[in-house]
Amino acid sequence: MSYQRFKDNTFWSYSCLYYSRLEKQNVKRTDTPRCINVVVVGLSGAEKEKGAVGIGKSCLCNRFMRSSSDDFEDDHNSLISNSDFSGRVVNNDNFLYWGEVMKTSEEGTEYIFRVIEQTEFIDDSTFQPFNGVKMDPYVKRCVATKIESAEKLMYISRSQLGVEEKFEQKVLPAGKFNVDGFLCVFDVSVVPGRSIEKQLETVTNILKNVKSTTKPVVLVTTKNDKLNEAYVQEVQKLVSRNEFKKAIPIVETSAYLNVNVDAAFIALAHIIDRFKGRTKIVPYLESVKNYY
Is the pLDDT of residue 152 over 80? Predict the structure, then answer.
């Protein structure tokens, strides 16, 4: 690791730790950005589980972390080789570290977001999950609030796998990640091979498990540029269930069109930061007008 990379990683690690301690001591923060550690979760697995394509977790992360059109890719297939699984980007884990990015909310608050995506990698030779028999079910392990992976590199794209030295290399600071909150993804488009019932079952179980961690969660609907109205209504019914006490906000997004992506993360940051103002969540159909 170069000295500059070591210095950068050390700075962010100690910065987050420092402000976490200030909060516990009720010490007033300065203008230094607040560090927010976010985990993105949702239906994952082989094609028989998630259908012909994924639900958009990776595209959501990609657009948030690297928002320019030149940096956006829609191919983040979880079907990989054994050598790629054991490389330093995947690092024998079933999650990706997307790095860190600074964002500013409408009221002018600066946040440093560090993002992990919980997924399930599939062996391209056996079409079975890596470490499948040794792992807890996805809906349980994806809500872990303390994550570790020594020397794990930031993920950029599939083309990085196997040739990591040709890409920018940033390491998960200290190899540790203490989760502040979750974004739970729900795809509202129709996908061949995936039933709405399967996605509802998975997301319901994830939300129940998140609730037991006491960490905040925002439900993010993806692919609203191809939405099915019946699916949107099912999401509304889901968060209205008594068990969730109508306390889970919904943000409607399109990573493809870059609509409401930042808003989803900022909404979660406001909950984590106990923001006293009103978090403005604009419906997709209203937000998309600004795209054209």
Answer: yes
